[in-house]
Amino acid sequence: MPGFTHLHTVSGFSVRYGASHPERLAERAAERGMDALALTDRDTLAGTVRFAKACAAAGVRPLFGAELAVDGPRRQEEVARGERRRTPVRGGAFIDESTPRVTFLARDGARGWADLCRLVTAAHTAPDTPLLPWPDNHADGLTVLLGPDSDVGRALAAGRPDRAAKLLAPWREAYGDALRLEAVWHGREGTGPGSLRLAARTVGFAAEQRIRPVLSNAVRYADPGQGPVADVLDAARRLVPIDPTKELDSGEAWLKDPAAMLHTAERIVEAAGFRREAAHRLLEQTGATAAECLVDPEDDLGLGTVHFPEPHLVGAARRTAQRTLASRAAVGMVLRGYAGRRDYWERMHDELDVIAYHGFASYFLTVAQVVDDVRKMGIRVAARGSGAGSLVNHLLGIAHADPVEHGLLMERFLSRRRFVLPDIDIDVESARRLEVYRAIIDRFGTERVATVAMPETYRVRHAVRDVGAALSMDPAEIDRIAKSFPHIRARDARAALEELPELKALAGEKQRYGRLWELVEALDALPRGVAMHPCGVLLSDASLLARTPVMPTSGEGFPMSQFDKDDVEDLGLLKLDVLGVRMQSAMAHAVAEVERTKGERIDLDAVPPGDPATYRLIRSTETLGCFQIESPGQRDLVGRLQPATFHDLVVDISLFRPGPVAADMVRPFIEARHGRAPARYPHPDLEEPLKETYGVVVFHEQIIHIVHIMTGCGRDEADRVRRGLSDPESQGRIKVWFAQHAAVRGYDAETIRRTWEIVEAFGSYGFCKAHAVGFAVPTYQSAWLKAHHPAAFYAGLLTHDPGMYPKRLLLADARRRGVPILPLDVNRSGVAHRIELVSDSRSAVRSNSPGVWGLRLALSDVHGISEAEAARIADGQPYASLLDFWERARPSRPIAGRLAQVGALDAFGANRRDLQLHLTELHRGARGGGGGQLPLAGGRKTAAAGLPDLSDAEKLSAELGVLSMDTSRNLMDDHRAFLDELGVVSARRLREARHGETVLVAGAKAATQTPPIRSGKRVIFTTLDDGTGLVDLAFFDDSHDACAHTVFHSWLLLVRGVVQRRGPRSLSVVGSAAWNLAELAELRAEGGLEEVAARLARPVPEGAEGTPDGEGDGDGGDGDARDPARAGRDRSIRMSTGYEMHPWADLRPAGEGPASGRKLWHQSPGSAG
Amino acid sequence: MTILCVRFQLPPMYEAVLPGLLGLLEEFTPVIEALPPDGALADLRGAERYFGRDAVELASVIRVRALARYGVDCLIGAGPGPMLARMALYDARPGMTCAVTEDAVAEFLAGKPVTALPGVGTATARTLGEYGLDTLDRVAAAPLSTLQRLLGAKTGRELHERANGVDRGRVVPNAVSRSLATEQPFERDELDPDRHRRALLSATEELGARLRALDKVCRTLTLTVRYADRSATVRTRRLPEPTAHTTALTRAAYGMYEALGLQRARVRALALRAEGLDSAEQASYQLTFDPVDEKVRRIEEVADRARARFGPRAVIPGTLAA
């Protein structure tokens, strides 16, 4: 039995074409006895790295290639001949797929790979769809397969061997001996692609032209029976439904085994009129072609080797990079005042030695160069990640925090025993992230810099949409089904239908949709598009373009590598993560506002540490808007932990991670901190590293210390050990090793056992202290701003919207904290939110100060306003009259109307409706061209027209509609009377409620999460805002049947629940029943309380009293025993670290997140907006 | 309250039944204005006296007959004028005709949203809503001059009158009431132009045969293309001369279809309506020197006779036979 190599195989990375993942293809090739396999994706090499790794695992030799759309040498005239079709009135034009496609295989090692990258990059320079221009279509290191889809193949299909011969000539000229003709038989009729006659003609034509033929199967999927999936992908690509009466996928394009391919070859050569033995010749030719293609993943792709930018680009022109780095670090020592500290000098030299050992000096210089450039542009920049543990980074100005002072370890970042690329992330202002990218590209040049790709893959919602459209389902129905799913993997679609309570209704009609579910699951995780990764930037030497294919990003036109972030690491490309952090932008805006108004320059990086007002604020848990500590869980934790120092913040941030929460590290820590339980150490030697966290292991650094102290192995080895802990296999080995070495050091068996327990339990998912310090710096800075410059802080938050909460909630918070909210005013508002001194005499007298700083709302928040329009309005200030405003600011009619609705034009006349009428007439006059009569009277004021003014409710509605915020008052105030009737407890009064009391609470939904928690169950956490404060709710899974759907799909909620208290500042409500408050309020308004009573009397599915255990640190172990009936609850995901997770936890739930303002208000055709 | 507004509860793809149902109404009064796709206005001023029953009673009779003869239920509103009858229809439920009497008009209108008024579309309603004039009593209370400033002189005046219950409309028998329609649904989203044309050909065959059987000619053809997302495109074409000749109808239908230039539009149904029916004797016919035209008509005549004898599918074009 001869072997066979598939030379033409596409994976799912051929977007909406290939139906199998590269891993699956490699596995199948090995199973079916093939020694080599080529991956030739359409227009992309993105699957290469995953394919190479999968091949290595499966024991198959990988061949690399791509299938590209090519422009013929004489294509122009053909285009001119084609007639132009009429533009359709509906539905759009067909997707043009008529360009011939040709398969290129890298043959000649690194040269072949570089040629392949060049061709793919060139193809992506075409204006819309990728198309390889003919002048670029030449390469010495490539083998070319002309298959049925090439121009030559098409001529043969058309029965024109003469034309085929003519078309072949330029190919022969460009590629000479490396040209192959590819025969494919998919059992189709006729002479088209996949037909036996075309395959036979190809083989015959090859013999006649003396070009070697090869056999391929043009593989689109790994296994037989995946034809329908290919049909769905075709339909999704062409944007048409599947037409079963037309030619569908043949079902033959799977990865056939050698025997089947031999059979195919025999049929083809017989049809071509040769003897059957010629089939072996055909297979031999195919095998020989495969054997020529020698590209080694390690040597030629550069897997596992590193390429830094050339030293002369990073300031090391005459000296070596290492020397330059050393002298810059020394300069840093002096500048930062560490010159007299011997320990600093020693540490610096140690680190430099490690860097020299790896030869990473130019990497550090590169990052330092980027950080310097960014800082010179006036953009806030901060380092995060384990890089903060390096003193050299601190000295170069990359990281702010002093690693010696905070006890951060270099070994966690880089050591002689770590051979992975070090990783420094830098945070910049999100609003100016693209500027930073441009600066980096300008500094190093496009031949060295590229952004990183991020494939978007099918998840359940998109899969439902695409399959539904392909199956001709009703669009409204598709939309309904797709939206009712949470954001889960497509392959879990049917399991979710079975198990999730909020999908019960949909599960009932499951059978109606036939093949839908099967096909949805088949699309799981296939790429459906590619986007720019939000933070990765590749930096390399000038050979970058020879090692990675680059395409322009759709929006900004940045060069983007086709590889994703994991791929580039494997390829040894240096990736710098430049994260846009909105909080940095918000803080920058706040600082700029303070400087603009008060002339006071705040250096946030130099604010006094340990500011009492700041910590008072944090301890009060009113931390909305503060970086990292604003989520409901964090507010709860902060309330219990009561941080008083920067170190407490670091610990707080580290504790609030899935790992520590799951491992129940929080409760012992809190107990010990407040002196309720003594801090315990396994051995006095370990007191030193564990003292800072009262004996609880929180940081990776502590594990490193423990292992180092107990075994004396050195900290670099200890870090390696720590990494090994997350893998259950190596954990066993480490346990033995640990016991042996600790015993040698003289520790008794009991100590070793107890220490190992700690190491084993916490080691794998503690938090890196360097990360936490990096996080805690902006946390403290933002809290400081909130405590000292609240108005400016809110202005920054509202402008850059950094947090998890909707803007209206921040506004409510500002109102609660006594920051005056100043309405939108075209004469005062800027493009961004601003602060203003409120010179109101009353408030001045009351607060006994020169005045209060208020928050002036921004023009940019008006729905639909463009940047240019907002800037034009702001530039033209002040305006004397409505006419003046209309003529100089030239707002569009709808924007002007919206401004009038929210009172931004109130200065020009009293009545907002009259203003509307005047605007309309101005608009008509302008359109008429004549200007016409001015409908103004009484000088600068606008005359009244006698229309009724907006009522209060209408004003509020307008604010929500136009600004998505309730700016004049809280929207819940309007429901207050009804809520009092119901006996609802307000958030403020809830603070006095007793533990275990059953209460009713209500409010607008601010956030909903289903995070992974320790008990392995799914808990829905929801935050409601009722104007007096926030109410944090938890729904446990016994109430999900009754509540889940309501909670996910309503904006205003009324909830019955039981108060849970776990500390003076820690309070939550465990929900047992939930109603849509908007619906109830409507019933109240229309039918009175009787109607409401009737609605409430409607039976809620039973089993709903809230259980007082479970959340976070509660005990949840007995959950499954108590509730055995539900199949889905039994299925939980066991993490490698040993704790269980509910399969549906940690997903973005269905519904559309927190209410966005416009949806919070009923909309009648009569209400404004 | 002598005007009825009837809405038949037809499934969306059965517009073709409407002409038959209109025929049912014509048994009561000749003054009928069709409101495609599923409604009609009927003026019963004469009928009340003729049948000796009032409009509400006649409404029950109409409903019973529609159910008995066509199996189609209907909603009926009654009022003194067409506008009020239409508005009454909104409040009607199956089996309960909503009737508005002359003296209860103001009461009936108060509190209704402006969109309830026929002729006030979303655009006008939005304009009025922007100025807080969202109910009819508010509009009625607003000064005429303000309304005219908002909507223009004519529209403002008309709106003002109608909001005050002045109903100047009449029931005008229209072309659609004398029309024939056929609808060709597809089983799935259909993109294939060949199959679209086939459906059109089948539709014109059917319309032509029905017209010729009635000895009628039509003046206008209307093509409605319904899409998967429940939207539709409507095109109307006036024929060069009134005709019942299938070839001419087909040419017009194809012309309208080609002009749409559809490519990826997901077509769910094609409906064709022949409007402006007239008796065939009164139609003029442009003679030509082209003998083909004459021959085609002769063949059509023969085919019609064959169909009359052997059933409607005895003779059909080759493309439809496949």
From TrEMBL, chain B:
Function recorded in the entry: Poorly processive, error-prone DNA polymerase involved in untargeted mutagenesis. Copies undamaged DNA at stalled replication forks, which arise in vivo from mismatched or misaligned primer ends. These misaligned primers can be extended by PolIV. Exhibits no 3'-5' exonuclease (proofreading) activity. May be involved in translesional synthesis, in conjunction with the beta clamp from PolIII.
UniProtKB keywords: DNA damage
UniProt family annotation: Belongs to the DNA polymerase type-Y family.
GO MF term set: damaged DNA binding; DNA-directed DNA polymerase activity
Gene3D superfamilies given in the database record: 3.30.70.270, 5' to 3' exonuclease, C-terminal subdomain, DNA polymerase, Y-family, little finger domain
Taxonomic superkingdom: Bacteria
Domain UmuC: 12-121
A Pfam family: IMS_HHH_1
An example Gene Ontology biological process: DNA repair
InterPro entries in alphabetical order: DNA/RNA_pol_sf, DNA_pol_Y-fam_lit_finger_sf, DNA_pol_Y-fam_little_finger, IMS_HHH_1, Rev_trsase/Diguanyl_cyclase, SulA_CellDiv_inhibitor, UmuC
PANTHER family named among the record's database cross-references: BLR3025 PROTEIN, BLR3025 PROTEIN-RELATED
Organism: Streptomyces spiralis
Keyword Glycoprotein: no
Name under which the protein is recorded: UmuC domain-containing protein
